[in-house]
Amino acid sequence: MNETIVPPTTRLPPISKLHTYPIAELQDAIKYLHVLYLPEVRGSSRMSNRTLPSQNTDNHSSALENIRMDSFERAYAIRWLTALISRVNSEESSFVDSEQLLQDAASLMSICAGAAEVGTFTRVFKFGPSTLGEEVTLQLTDAPLDNDDFSSVGALTWGAACVMAEMIVESPDDFSLPRSLSSAVNVRGRPFRVLELGAGTGLVGLTIADLLNRRGVDFKAILTDFHPSVLTNLRRNVDAAFPATPTPVKVLCLDWSAFPLDFHPDLELCTPFELIIGADIVYEEKHAVWIKECLKKLLAPEAFFHLLIPLRSTHIAESNTVEKDFPHPSDIPTGCGKGLAIAHSEQFKCEAYSDYDPRSRERWTEIEYAYFRIGWISPPDLNPATTNGTEILPQVM
């Protein structure tokens, strides 16, 4: 197969139109996925020169490795294979030579998905110690992908959530977490309120809740998502982490695109929060602007929204929307008053490997992340220790 390497979301036939494609094209699509993922499963850190689908260049090899390590693209490939198997089975004999197609698709899907596709997968996460010597241990369940809706990938724990949870435990003061009950209540006169957008399995929100609970802080943590199966799994994880009732952690459905400006049926989303967090929640071009509308209603005047996103080579445009929709302080027009802007941003790299394939630990790679701290800022709030509106702080590694 001699073609340019592109991500599965670009290369594979649309799921909704699989029935219109001849079996030869579907077989070619499966062969393409073999090129992307099968060598990695066999333990190769990089494909040999003779197996590259196109010209042998460093740029080509780099693109291949980037796509292989992109969890978002791998999840889409799994969903596509699942849909293909379902479609072929439902067509009875309309697909000629479908038996081999089914075998190839099923074999590749089991390799790509591992435990994530077989069923639920429970993992133990350990973070710390914090600046106060605290350690957090959580047991969370990842749910199988919903074959009918790609948005169900939120039922899996992604790398950005692990990185952000680690950042919070190691440096809780950077996220304005109260150190005691008195420091939380005396200032605000009410519980310290935390909101997680796109909570997924709840790793980040539950990490914060665990820390605050250990410190005896009076708090409320609201973990939100949208997809029904994600919310079901999220509630299961919350119940496991906080089995006692009443619990300070609550799970709510929040659709950013439809978040009302003046009213929400749940009163918990009618009061501002002292801390809002989000990990890997910007992967469509409209996400940043939808999130901004939510923050206008939900972010308290002195609070910050902490956002961490992986810089995927396949989703550069989507990642760039953060700085497009949230300006730096120096870009806020004079006299406009406070607006939502980036108080601090930085980029850093982390080692990454798959928890579903233990062999990948022997060939870890680097993933680059962008971290943003966003709050209500006006031009007079500019700190002298800034450059182009971005605060200079030590790198988080």
UniProtKB/TrEMBL annotation:
One annotated GO molecular function: S-adenosylmethionine-dependent methyltransferase activity
A Pfam family that the UniProt record links to this protein: Methyltransf_16
Record's signal peptide: none
The protein, known as: S-adenosyl-L-methionine-dependent methyltransferase
Organism this protein belongs to: Rickenella mellea
Lineage: Eukaryota, Fungi, Dikarya, Basidiomycota, Agaricomycotina
